[in-house]
Amino acid sequence: MFETAFRLGKKRFYDTKKFPRGFAKSGDFTLAEEDILTLYGETLSGLEAGTLQPENAEEQQFLKVLDNPELAASKIEKAWLKYVRLARGRKRFHTLNGRNKLDASSDDYTDTDDEPSLTEEG
């Protein structure tokens, strides 16, 4: 895949609560990001939670990125930040119906005599 000093997880990482069909099938992650999350997710989760201690410079850099996301440079760091944003952030809901209804007195959709119509001869 690519060279990294991150430890592989002891088992594959899945989030069946937020992504029950898998990371790639959610439509939010690429296949490469899915590979990163499933292979390294357990390690990244442990580092974030403090149950694992960093063993190398890349893992120490990852901890710095958690505090300052703008420092993210590697694919692993960016994939984890994307996962955190989507899994823990607020889910967006899109609807075709808006909350605000048009005001009947609005001038946006009323006919005016200022513009000539096609039937008038001018």
Automatic annotation (TrEMBL):
UniProt protein name: Macrodomain Ori protein
The organism of origin for this protein: Vibrio diazotrophicus
Residue ranges, compositional bias (Acidic residues): 105-122
Superkingdom to which the source organism belongs: Bacteria
Similarity comment text for this entry: Belongs to the MaoP family.
NCBIfam families in UniProt: PRK11027.1-2 (NF008252)
Disordered: annotated segments: 97-122
Pfam families: DUF413
